[in-house]
Amino acid sequence: MLEALGNLGLDSPVLDFGCGTGGISAALVATGRKVIGADISPGLLACARDRQLGDDALFFLFDGRGLPLASASVDAVLTYVVLNHLMDDHELQAMLGEIHRVLRPGGRVVAIEQVRRKATIDPAVWQHRRTRAGFEQLFAAAGFQIEQVDILRYGRIPTIHAVRFGLWPERMFPALRSAERLIGRLVGVLPWDYCDVRFVLGK
Known about the structure:
One of its GO terms (molecular function) is S-adenosylmethionine-dependent methyltransferase activity. It is a single chain. Helices cover 31% and strands 31% of the residues. The chain is an alpha/beta fold. It has one domain (2-154, 194-202): 3-Layer(aba) Sandwich (Rossmann fold), CATH 3.40.50.150. The longest helix has 14 residues, at 89-102. The protein is globular and about 50 Å long.
C-alpha cells in the first residue's frame, strides 16, 4: 500500500482516512512521514493514540460528513476497506468530494476495497461491496483520475487457505500471492468470490 505513494516527500502530510486503531498510521510514521489520522469511532481513535507515535501523528474524530481540514492541505490519502461502509452511493460520492477538496493538486489517493462481480449489501456488517466499475464511476464523478487498479487478494481461493491452515507449507505463500495477482490481471473478479482491489487515484 505504501509503495503506491511513489516519490512523495517525507515532509508531505498523509491523511489516513478511517485510521481505526492506527496500524497504517504507525507504518507511515515508521517511514519518516507525517500522518493525520481521521476516524468516526472514539474508541478506535483512543487505541490509535495509545500507540504514542509522537509529533509526527495527529488523530482527530470526524462526523462522517466533513473533514475539518483546509482545502489542498494534504499530499496523499490512504484508506483501507473503509469506503465500503458508506452504504449509499450519494453519501460516498460526497465523502469522496471532501477527500478531493483536501488533497493538493498532483496528490494521490490509494484506496484498497473489497469488490465483487455483482454489487452486494450486507446490513449485518454495514457493508456495500461495489463492483470495480461502480467504484470507478464514483471516483471519476468526484473528480479523480484513475491511475492504476490492481487485484491484490481473493477472499476464497482454496490454495491460500490451505497454507493458512497448515495443509501446504508456508514457504509457498509468496508464489500463491503472485498467482492470485496473475489471475486478477487475466480474469478479474471470479463469479463466486470477492477480492481486495487497490485503486490509485490522482488529482
